[in-house]
Amino acid sequence: MPIFEYRCRSCRQQFEILVGRGRDENLPRCPACGQGDAIRVFGGVAVGISRTQLNPGTFIRQRGQPPAYAPPRKGQRAAGG
How far apart are CA 54 and CA 24, in angstroms? Predict the structure, then answer.
């Protein structure tokens, strides 16, 4: 279920609402002032990138030693790239 972010036009309070399936698109009431004139705003987005996409080298770990970086061999590219 998506979480939508809203801002009240009256008091400028920002709040989130968990929207279920089949819920009508009526504007929610502000939890701070009770007005029903909120507008939907866009929140932040999380993006994940694996280390191999950023740097095609590898980390080699030997027992009892910290990981050691091995740079890519000539001509080696990142996975998926």
Answer: 42
Whether residue 61 contacts residue 67, with contact meaning beta carbons closer than 8 Å, is answered with yes
Query: Across the 81 residues of the chain, what is the mean pLDDT of every consecutive 10-residue run?
Result: 88 89 73 91 72 64 80 63 47
Name which of 22, 21, 33 is nearest 6 in CA terms. Answer: 33
Domain boundaries, the chain: 3-41
How, if at all, do strands 58-60 and 38-41 pair? unpaired
Note if the pTM is more than 0.90.
Answer: no
Burial of 37 per CB tally in 10 Å (0-12, 13-18, 19+) = exposed
Instruction: Report the distance separating Cα 20 and Cα 1, nearest Å.
Output: 6
